[in-house]
Design goal:
With 328 residues, the protein is of the alpha+beta class. It folds into two domains: 18-111; 117-278 and 287-325, no CATH class. Helix content is 35%, strand content 31%. It is built from six helices and 15 strands. It has helices at residues 5-55, 60-80, 82-85, 89-111, 257-266, 291-295; strands at 117-123, 130-131, 134-135, 141-148, 155-164, 167-173, 181-185, 192-196, 205-210, 213-218, 224-229, 233-240, 245-253, 304-313, 316-325. A hairpin with a 2-residue loop joins strand 2 and strand 3 (134-135). Helix 2 packs antiparallel against helix 4 (89-111).
Amino acid sequence: MDTMFPTAVCMSKRRRRKLSNVQLSAVESGNTTLSGIAVLRGLVGPTLFFTGLQLMPTYPILGICICYFAFVIALFEIIYEPWILRKPIHFQVGLIVILLFFSDLFTIQIFHFRDIRTIAQIVEAEAGSNIAGIKWYEQFSELRVAIHNPDEDRYRDINVIVRPDAWVYDAAIFDTPPDHCKVEKAPANGPSLMIGETKKSATSMTLYNFFGRLEMHDSAGNPYYEIATVAGYRLTCDALEPSSTVQLVFATVTLNPMSESIMRSGSQIEPGKWGFHGVELRPPPGHIVNPVEDFFGSKPTPTAVEIDGIYKYGALRHRIKRALKVAP
């Protein structure tokens, strides 16, 4: 009996050792699972941050709050993540310093810049002159809209629509335009006046709307073109250098009674839908049609300009949406 008892105890110890090894193996395999979860947790902060950046142009306050919340989540991960706690203390401190650096950089980009400046003004222009490639008529009123970068760094990817509260015959960039800047008609979002010289009789007319680009065609192939719009013009620039300005010149017009009558007939189109109203006009014998003199009235007096678009400063996009009063 005495010789058997120690043997039983030895066997019990061996079993305990084996059980301990099994437990240790389970913990080690569990660490692998936890590291995967830790990676997923670590992605929450960056995902929220980039989500906030995407929201900022449309919802700036919400986007900024989400970005700062992402920084807070990242800080908690650095402080309490077991994988980081098993590292030397200077590793954790380094991560905190890097996080604070990027949060400070984000704060500077958000708040430490001067907003883009704009101004609108009426300028007296002489009939018969050429202004920015536009042949000037006495029916035109020259409206200038200037967009200025007051900052010490360039603005990039500028994309804004400038819309005066008057009909516009044409628009152009005044003087020497900055590199990679251009202006073009904005997508149609309201009435437009188009004319065509019908050299051949047509049996049908069709208006095409290619995502805001209007084209008129008839069965005889006569050309049509737009002579006045209220949609405004789009300015795009790859970059606007520090302390530089881009000026737009608008040839604003009014419609004469005949044109207004045509537009009133077209206003019967159901709201929210596209359509057109066509009128065939026969000029007196020997009369040469001039779109400006035959369809426009006296000089207008624009009073306001709407500017709507985005631009990029640093790594962030900013929204510009404002209404300017036109200076006399």
